[in-house]
Amino acid sequence: MKKWLFLVSLFPLCAFSQNMTNEKLQDIYTSVSDSIQGNPGAWQFFIKEIPMVSITDTNHNRMRIISPIADSKSLSDELIKAALVANFHTALDVKYAVSDGILWSVFIHPLKELSEHQVKDAVSQVYHAHVNFGTSFASTALAFPGTIGGDKKEGVDKKEEQPKYKKL
Q: What digits encode the pLDDT tens for the residues 4-21?
């Protein structure tokens, strides 16, 4: 009886598991982008002239969607601090990150567990984090209130700056 109850309790988890693949990702990216090039596992695409890249590693069940924003050396300390605060308050499922001297908006996630809705939302968030860098720093319309060190003169103050966000 205990085994039966255990198996029944696992059923809902199995019923909702995802199985995202490179082929499904390519179909999704093709449907949401203005143009796309690349091969399964490595794509470059554009949404409203914003470049995006997606890379997957099926052996390690990982994927990422990234968008280059700026040369990191050209950013002031104030902008970098504001981006770090945004990672906590307004960037939500994406983050601002620096690699190879470039500031990126980044979404990183296990590949197989993603749903189509999550991928589309991730693309939208990477796009909005890119276009809102330097202003609201928002990846969605949702923002958790906060500022750098509690000083309303620095960072992101959601009462003064509302996110510029439109669903793609």
A: 555 545 555 554 557 999
